[in-house]
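We modelled the chain as a single entity of 696 amino acids. Its sequence is:
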Amino acid sequence: MTKLGWGRRVVWGAALAAVAMLGACNGDDSAERNRLPGFVSGSVRTTAYDGASDDLLTAGLGKTGLGTATAPGFANASRPTSAELRRLAIWSNYRALVDMSVNGGYGRFWGPNVDLDGNDTLGEGKIAGTEYLAYSDDGSGTKNVTLLVQVPASFDPAQPCIVTATSSGSRGVYGAISAAGEWALKRGCAVAYNDKGGGNGAHELGSDTVTLIDGTLANAVLAGTASLFTANVTSGDLAAFNSRFPNRYAFKHAHSQQNPEQDWGRVTLQSVEFAYWALNEQFGPLIDGSHHGVRYRAGDITTIAASVSNGGGASLAAAEQDNRGWITAVVVGEPQVNVRMAPNAVVRTGGQPVPSFGRPLADYATLANLLQPCAAASASLAGAPYLSALPAATTQSIRTQRCATLAAAGLVAGADTQSQAADALAQLHAAGYLADSDLLQAPMWDSQAIPAIAVTYANAYTRSRVTDNLCNFSFATINPATGAVAAPATSPMPAVFGVGNGVPPTAGIDLVFNNGAGVDHRLATPDASFAGAACLRQLWTNGMLGMPANVDAVRVNANLQGKPAIIVQGRSDALVPVNHASRAYVAQNGISEAGRSRLVFYEVTNGQHFDAFLPVAGFDTRFVPVHYYNLQALNLMWKHLKSDAPLPPSQVIRTVPRGGTPGAAPALTSANLPPISAAPGANAITTGAGTIDVPL
């Protein structure tokens, strides 16, 4: 590996040097000079990887190392190097988005060793190439969106391609490496990553410690505008807050006061433009003996906007906003989108209108956070997978108490826990959650995915400061035995870049409710901090603290400007309900684009949001990997772009669960994963004129 400091650039290897010289034709003084985009703040860090000791896809770990449950370590746990942090970030982010079990498909249907045709031919799967790393900023030094471009050694400058890999969730810049980056690198495409301005940025308030672009730590004052994120708090307010609320943390997505989601489309487009710059820098002709000229201009490179979840939503937003031809096509999985719905849009299943569709995340997530713990007590959900470290008796007590408090507040009906739980579940159905996702209501809350999202997005949509303790929630380290806020034995900050996901609970930093000194929100009150959950819900229902305007600022219009596009989503998704995301987007697209639309939608039965949960008992027997179909969709789009092969029409893909014993399901086979059909027949989804009708 060759690595140079900030502001210097290196082109690695004799092969790349030869390509540059050939492209130069001994120099072309008349060519336009390649210039760094104006949004790039500071300098560009360029690093070359040999594909052996270190690489683009696996950070030198290979297929075997990524598949190992033991995380790569640090030589000095308190001061990891940037290379160690990168390796850990790639390991943790790769594993976070796919099923890493062999029985579940890793190493057989996907993985570094599996080629684009699905065959085990690539060995450890290490990929040589070059990375370009920089911030995008607006001049304030507070945006600091991380941009990263990977250019594999296999990149063919005569057949150039780019794939975006915008991070899912609030993950750091490597967040979509397995979801989109891997496919792109194997295809020989450059990968344009960005962290969406959320990027797992953490600020340890007590020590005033922040992370830099590479995950290494610095004092917030000394870091200045090099900080990935520093909370906007005066020194006096910070001291007062630390005195009253010690051991607290600010996170960028929640506490930047910038509502970063409104910029996700724009920064995804910036990542593509930055990739163009990198490719011109690497393959453009030499001019005046030292600088590179422009070989590729907007629209010259086949570019697929791809990612999943929030990254998928960002990709759709980017395609909508693209007015220079940066993006050729779109392929996204389970996109989290807030769709601006026309009043005549309709979502149907089996010919019948669904009860609710097109709600924004601020609505459905705060409702789910309120009702899910109670709904989970329903006897009809007794077989749901258990996804909590709490004792089962504690969890059951939480569910019973939440039901009782909801009933006392008049928010659910029923004289006993079972009738109250049934009403809570019925309310979720009425709000657009499918019965297909019933058994996921409990694990979505028990895993703390829904509470974490409700708190983080409420903070973002109200542009709250960390010192506001919105709805009495904050992020803190706790005593694992009691759940009470406590000083950590060692700070979580050295590893937060490597293992954090940007939405606490994460990386040893928990979500707490500030009654007294603060306690794990699940344990702070018998009803699991109902008052806080009700407060979050009221922010939306009562239109408080600017939430409606900030939600409106993130809405998409479903006009892809005639670009070919594929959306894939699991029908059983209980985190981003399909009625509010993909189905709503497709319906609105029929109005926004009308006859110009080239969007197709594949809905996967027995598919849910978190493939990484599939090895868990009860997930393994019931659900299939949506990631497999994301890969198939990318292959289909590639063939469409390169050989004009038609995209299969919108359809329901009827998968077959693995079955067997929970925790010991039989190995996934192709029999579980039927292909996307060119002629879906009765499984065809009908779309157009603002209506989508999905077969039951």
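As a brief sanity check on the tokenised model: The chain is about 30% helix and 15% strand. The two ends are 53 Å apart (CA to CA).
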